[in-house]
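User: I want to check something. If I give you two sequences, will you return the structure for each one separately, not as a complex?

Assistant: Yes, each is folded on its own. Here is the first sequence with its structure:
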Amino acid sequence: MLTIETKELEISLELKRKVKMICKFACAKPIFINGNIKSIKETNIAYVMPYIIKANNIDYLMFDECDDIFVNGYEKVEKRY
């Protein structure tokens, strides 16, 4: 029997601060959704769900320590500086 374990990942305060500052200049209100890790116990299989930041009906998907930001899915990529 497969057992799936889920662990929630908190968005860092530094990332929240940066996003809020950018959204303030863009007159947008961000909504933060924490990511998570889903892993199958007793295997090395895991899936990392990214953080999702919603602003002006656009979803921005971000991973920790990754310079890429995905916009409305995984097809369009923007570089984070």
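And separately, the second sequence with its own structure:
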Amino acid sequence: MNWIALQNSEQLSQLISESKIPDKFGVLVFKHSTRCSISNMALSRLERKWNFTTEKLSTYYLDLLNYRELSSKIENIFRIEHQSPQILLIQNGICTFSRTHSDIDVLEIENFIGRTTGTES
């Protein structure tokens, strides 16, 4: 995976705009606590099974230990309660999919994207 480090409000605004690009599936945000074993496990599972290209789905990584205030902004903008680890799929400027902890599953993300974009196999 080609993670883009999410570190400021300008990037958050940019990713919301990016989620509205017609040829993209959206933008994925992974909120990660580097000290949490569950978060590390979820990250490892994502990276092992990921098969989207960045042209179709950009992936942002938010280090919660260093940028917790940015997570609060995400919580307020998308009305999604903060969790860690947490995955958010942003499509057309809104959060359409969210999972936390052991519920973060690449196949479920792929199936959801297929249903929302008409690219199911």
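Because they were folded independently, the notes below concern the second chain alone. The radius of gyration is 13 Å. The longest strand covers residues 26-32.
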